[in-house]
Amino acid sequence: MARFVTLRLLRAALTIALVVTFAFIVLRMSGDPAQIILGPEADPEAIRAFRKSWGLDAPLWQQYFQYFGAIAQGELGRSMRDGRAAIELVAERIPATLALTLPALFLKLAIGIPAGIFAALNRGRFADRAIMLLSVAGFTVPSFVLGLVLVLVFAVQLGWLPSGGQDSWRHAILPILTLGIGGAAVLARFTRSAMLEVLGQPYIRTASAKGVPWRLVVTGHALPNAAIPTVTIVGFMVGSLIAGAVVVESVFSWPGVGRLLVVAVSNRDLAVVQCILLLVAATMVASNLIVDFLYGFLDPRLRHAGGKAGV
Amino acid sequence: MTDRALDNAPARPGHLAALKAIPPLVWVAILWLAAVLFVAIFADLVAPYSYTAPNLRNRLVAPGHALHWLGTDELGRDVLSRLIVSIRISLLIAFGATVISACFGTALGFLAAYFRGLVEQAVLMLADFQASMPFLILALAVLAFFGSSLVLLVGLMGLFGWERYARIARGLAISAGAQGYASAVTQLGAPPTQVYLRHILPNIASTLIVSMTLVFPEVILLESGLSFLGLGVQPPMTSLGNMVGFGREYITRAPWIMLAPASVIVLTTLSVSLLGDWLRDRLDPTLQ
């Protein structure tokens, strides 16, 4: 068990280190931020001063280690645009993003999991086919198309709901629906195939043959086993609570982390982009860790195999 | 495997039976994909106008016009012509990216299966990293900081989904290595590249092709999402997501600018998904 936990923690730390390296390479080596911030006609003296104050004049490897050290101390740099701490700018936007993604997550779980279970239990019947067709349609429609179609119907044609902005709770309805529908479709599909796989196992047949009522076979044997793959995808959804709304926030002009990222990226505001990248990585890694430990809890076989699932 | 069964079957009736077994919905998907492919290949011949030619007298013309079947945009450019060129660009990016990512992923998976040990751990770690980060965020960082070009875009999209091929190829190659045929050719003296490329690859190809059909629609969605945000294909070049992004500003006055490319995206990804699902049920031996 200790080995399982250490391995997982090591892997998590390694993933974070990889993200930091990735961020550093991409963001530092793609151009000269001083030139971009100050403009092409800037005074060379001003550019030199800017580089010095941002540590851009040191050799790259030194910048790299400084960067690692700074992050270890929680210093994530300041926005090059207005000089405020990047983490502050990002933290400000988190509640707005969560106001969309948390209700959307709830919607996904409430629709996706029951729909998937229901489809699997009625395999091949009309209900199964209808749910699966809806599910395929749900995740092949890109979120910006779904969002714009909802705007076209409910804002432009019917005039019931606002098309964008963040002035009241009514502004949140369309973005939440957009996020929720797509996610529910994905989840329904995963749950269905997880259930089908479990329902084909010999122990299910044995349980039914022993005379256990079907309802108990499903709740007692099938659902707990099907929970394992489903937990993975739910973990991914929890991990993308912060990053998962980039496109939808842009469609609805919602001032969340995603909007901030798109704007920061087009302004080349390095500190803010790095900060968001790290924040996303941290939430992803944290939710993956939770999922891994949940696995160990749900499936003792994984715990005893040293944390390594078979091929 | 199914291919071989078909080849051995008595010529005509077997093929007919196989064709009849295709459900109607999958037929519709195949027909749509064939049409889209045709339009993409012969875009220059099919498009009625140049996709950049403005016509300031006929701005924001509604669909159904005698000269502009799908209407025109804010500069009077023919929406149908732009749509046709967009289909070509979007499909080109998606095809290129899918092929790159399948080759890259399979190669890494084979390397992991052959060397095991440290190499395998490194590949699995990279795969974990790739799978645990939302690709859109990584792509956004790279594209915006390097500026967007068609080559970079294809290369970047080519990194999408490689970890799935790598995992599949590694798992299947390891289990194939334990089967008779692989160890037989190894003991006959075949070099590893021959064992992997000539013997193992054909045996796991059906599973890999199914994964390609499942990744392909996601690549289309990803490219159109990036282009929608203004960070993918850059004007004057046009792609499906790009058209939706610019058409969005005219959603109240001229919704057709946005609806035409949006429906092509949806129908195409839907068709590939339906076809992929059906193929998976038919071909994937791991499911039977």
Descriptive tags:
heterodimer; A: 311 residues; mainly alpha; MetI-like fold; 77% helix; 0% strand; flat; disordered C terminus; B: 288 residues; 13 helices; 73% helix; elongated
What do you see in this structure?
The complex is a heterodimer of chains A (311) and B (288). Chain A has 311 residues and is mainly alpha-helical. Chain A has 14 helices and no strands. Chain B has a single domain (33-40, 73-283), classed as MetI-like fold (Orthogonal Bundle). Helix content of chain B is 73%, strand content 0%. Chain B has 13 helices and no strands. In chain B, helix 5 (79-115) crosses helix 12 (240-247), helix 10 (180-187) packs across helix 11 (192-228) and helix 12 packs antiparallel against helix 13.
Structural class of chain A: mainly alpha
Main interface: chain pair and counts:
A-B, 46 and 44 residues
Helix content of chain A: over 70%
How many domain units of chain A?
Answer: 1
Mean pLDDT across all residues of chain A, rounded?
A: 81
Largest sheet of chain B: none
What fraction, in percent, of the residue positions of chain B are helical? Answer: over 70%
Tell me the CATH topology of chain A.
Answer: MetI-like fold
String of helices and strands of chain A: HHHHHHHHHHHHHH
Compute the CA-based radius of gyration of chain A.
24 Å
Q: What is the CATH homology-level superfamily of chain A?
A: MetI-like
How many distinct helices of chain B?
13
Silhouette of chain A = flat
Oligomer: heterodimer
Distance between the termini of chain A: 21 Å
The biggest beta sheet of chain A is recorded as: none
Q: What is the number of helices of chain A?
A: 14
Structural class of chain B: mainly alpha
The CATH superfamily label of chain B reads: MetI-like
